[in-house]
Amino acid sequence: MPLAVHVLGLAVFALGTSEFMLSGLLPDIADDMHVSIPRAGLLISAFAIGMVVGAPLLAVATLRLPRRTTLIGLITVFGLGQVAGALAPDYALLFASRVISALACAGFWAVGAAVAIAMVPVNARARAMAVMIGGLSIANVLGVPAGAFLGENLGWRSAFWAVGAASAIALVGVATLIPRIPLPDAKPRLRTELTIYRDRQVWLSIVVTALAGGAVFCAFSYLAPLLTDVAGLADGWVPTVLALFGVGALIGTIIGGRVADAHLFGVLLTGIAASTLFLVALALLAHSPVAAVLLSFLLGTSAFYTAPALNARIFNVAGAAPTLAGATTTAAFNLGNAGGPWLGGAVISAGFGFASTAWAGAAMAVVAIGAVTVSLRLHRSQSRVVARSTDLAPEPVAADSV
Predict the structure, then answer these.
(1) DSSP secondary structure, 220-243, as one string
(2) The pLDDT value given to residue 373
(3) pTM strictly above 0.70
(4) If we measure between CA atoms, which residue out of 325, 263, 379, 396 comes closest to residue 117?
C-alpha cells in the first residue's frame, strides 16, 4: 500500500474527529448555546448536509486542478473552519462554521478517495479505502472520546481547538508526503463523468450507503444522552463508551477491508443485518448499562465492517468517473449522516425518548438490506447477459462476488 494512502488516512483522522465528536458534546453545546438537544443535534446534520452538497460541487470545481494542491487548499480551509467554531459566539455562527468545515471536508474526501483508488490495482480498492476509513475509525477510538474528555474538563470549545491543531499537522503531512499526481493526458470532461448517473446500480449503491450509514448514526448521534438519561451511566462514562464504539469501528474496518475485495455483497448483507440486530437490541435493552455499553461496541464493529465494501462498490460501478465516484461516495454517506440524526431528533421531539432512535435506525437498516438484495439480483442478471453475449462463462469478479 503506497505511503500516500496512509497519509490520507492520517488526514481523515482530523476530518473524522470533527465530524463525529459532537456526539459527546451535544449536552454541553446545548446548555452553552441555550438550545434543545435535538436542535444542537442539527449541527451534526448541518455538517452532513455540507458534505452532501460539497462533495459533488468541489469535485466538479477541481476536476482539472492538480490533486495535491487541491488537497492542501481543502485541509487548510477545514482547519480554519475549526478555529471559527471554537470562537463562535452564538448558535448561528457555530452552525455556519460547521457547514464551511463540511464543504472542505467533503472535497478532501472526494479528491483523496480518487487519489487513493488511482494508486492501487482494482483488486486492492477495498483495502485502500480501508486505510482511509481506518483514519475515521481511529478518530472514533481516540479523537471522539478525547473531544468528549476535553469538553467535560475544559469546555466544548477546547475540542474544536484540538481538531484545528490536528488539521495543521495533517496539512504538513499532505504538503510533504503526498506525491504529485499527474493529470491524465485527456482532460476530464464533466459531461462524460456525469453519464455514470444513468446506471441503476450507481443509484442503488447511493441508496444502500445512505441508509446503512444513517441507520447507525440515527442512534449514535444521541448516544451520550441515551447513556446518561436512559442507561443511568455517569457523564464520565461517555468518553469511554465512545472509545469502545471506535475500537469496534477499527476492528470492523480491518476485517471488512480484508474480506470485501473477495465477498463484497456478502459483507454488505451480513454487516447491515448485524447492525439491524444490534439496534433492535439497543432499543430493547437501553435501560441496562452493561447492554448499552456492549451494544455500542458491537454497533461500531458492524457499521464499519461494511464501510470498505460500500466505498468499493460505488467505485466499481462508477469506475469511468473516478473523481465523481469519490464525490458520490462521500455524498451518499453523508445523506445518511444527515438523515439519521434528523430522524433521531424527530422521534425524540415527538416524545418517544432517546431509546427510540435505535428503533428508527433499525427501520432504515431493513430498507438498506432490501436495496442490497435488489442490487445483487441486478448484478447477477447483468453478468448472465454478458456471458450469453460472449458465449463464455462469466469470470468471477472478486470485488462484486458474494
Answers:
(1) HTTHHHIIIIIS---TTHHHHHHH
(2) 94
(3) yes
(4) 325
